[in-house]
Amino acid sequence: MTLNKPWEVYDSTAKRRIPGTLGVYELGNAAGDVVYIGFAGGKSRMGLRGEISARLQERPADEPPDAAACQYRYEVNMMYLTRYIELLERHQDAAGQLPPDNMRAGEYIPGPVLRRGRRLRASEEGE
Amino acid sequence: MSSLNLELSDEQRLLIGNVRRFVREEITPLESELDPDAFELPQPEMERLVGMTREMGMFRMGAPVEDGGGGLDVTTLALLHEEMSQHRAGLYAPCYGAFGGGGIGQLADAKEEVREKYAGRSGFFALSEPSGGSDPARAIRTTAVRDGDDWILNGSKLWISGADSAEFGVVFARTDAAAGRAGITAFIVDTDSPGFEVRRIVHVLRSTGYPTELTLDDVRVPGSNVLGDVGGGFSLANQRLSTGRIPYSAECVGVAVAAQRMAISYSKQRETFGAPLSDRQAIQWMLVENETEIRTSRWLTLAAAQKADAGKPFRFEAAMAKVTSTESAGRVVDRAIQIHGALGVSKDLPLERWYRELRIRRIGEGPTEVQRIIMARDLISGDAVPELPIGA
């Protein structure tokens, strides 16, 4: 299942609205394309609120304006890791690759997602 | 006369010491940096640790020698699984797989060229279906119909771990609707076969080895991919489940041991009303209950392992070990949480993760109630012969 919720614009009041719980989230650009999928896990100091805020406030300096993430949507979920895997796999299956910000160096991509991606590419090359 | 000998050999002591040191010095420090629900290590660390276990001669100790494994006996393997599981992810990812797995054991029943093709590749085991998993002889509705030299599979499977990223699966399907348990056959199915689809991840109480639901829609499987004999799938599945229950039980014992260690340590340092918790009788009794349950589980698990090693029927003993270890480990962790108070349910400690994951263990690999049916059948039929000279 994809994260089928309306986007919310990140503004000065967003921090108060986003819960400090565990869960998963997506960041989108102005066109509504998913540019990043993330999770707030057990190591997260402020849960979804902290993770989403940090991601949207610390955008890469080289980012083209039309690719910039400016909106978010989230799901409170105690099983954040399996849900994170599911969202990554769904996106990868549909788009042929992971969201652009997830492919940056240092991002954690779970092993099952990497293996599924390799199989997906091998099968496309075989066709 | 008793055949039970729980004296450890020098080799067993050495192996246990190696694994215990490995968990303490390599796994636990890495784990403190990971997400509390993590089920895998960063790739460079994983490669380093696998390099270490290979160097120690302890990689894939449980796999058959002919498949490049250590061919370790069931008893020693159970002892090591008890050690490997004594960390946060240990119940479902003992040492994060750094000691290697046994692979899909059923491949031993495959034809040689098929075994060579699939050995070392990632696989899954697909027995359960939406219609049930505890009674596969009746519940399996996935069908396999001959088409020339091939078979055509149709149906769905549920609670299947690892199917979303695996290269192949061992899939059980009905090949003869009228033959009951003799009408089930095991097939090796490539996950890139047209018609094979993983429909969804099923979110449960654990992140490690999360289950999936999959469908087979006219999936064509070559006749050479039949495992064992046509109609022999049920005994293959049973064999796998009975054997697997021993390390499965040992891992529960290991987690209970780790929780008990934490509970004793915390009860000595935490003070209430001017005295450490360990001075309180209520806490002391919890610790004694824990220890009694741990030792009972360990004895039953090793008794089952020794029967398996002796080549005797061990279904009854494995079922008893499974029930006792899974049920009692849940209670041990529950008491350890109670002793730790609020800290016990936080993600700062591994107790909450063990609590969730142990709940699954009472259901996985055959639930408690099915194990009791297995034992009751053997008791009533007279097949469960006591090995100890009870009352002698």
Order of strands across the main sheet of chain B: 1-4-5-8
Could you report the average pLDDT of chain B, rounded to the nearest whole number?
92
Number of strands of chain B: 10
Principal-axis shape of chain A: globular
How many distinct domains of chain A? 1
Number of helices of chain A: 4
Q: What distance lies between the first and last C-alpha atoms of chain A, to the nearest angstrom? A: 27 Å
Q: Please give the CATH class of the largest domain in chain B.
A: Mainly Alpha
Q: How many domains make up the 3D coordinates of chain B?
A: 3
* Helix content estimate of chain A: 25-40%
* Proportion of residues in extended strands of chain A: 15-25%
The tally of helices of chain B reads 10
> Low-confidence segments of chain A, ≥5 residues, pLDDT <50?
none
What would your notes on this structure say?
The complex is a heterodimer of chains A (127) and B (392). Helices cover 37% and strands 19% of the residues of chain A. Chain A is of the alpha+beta class. Chain A is globular. Chain A starts with 7 loop residues before the first strand and ends with a helix. With 392 residues, chain B is an alpha+beta fold. Chain B has three domains: 10-97, Orthogonal Bundle (Butyryl-Coa Dehydrogenase, subunit A, domain 1); 111-227, Butyryl-CoA Dehydrogenase, subunit A, domain 2; 242-381, Butyryl-CoA Dehydrogenase, subunit A, domain 3. Helices cover 44% and strands 15% of the residues of chain B. In chain B, the strands form three sheets. Chain B has a four-stranded mixed beta sheet. The interface between A and B is medium-sized, with 22 and 22 residues.
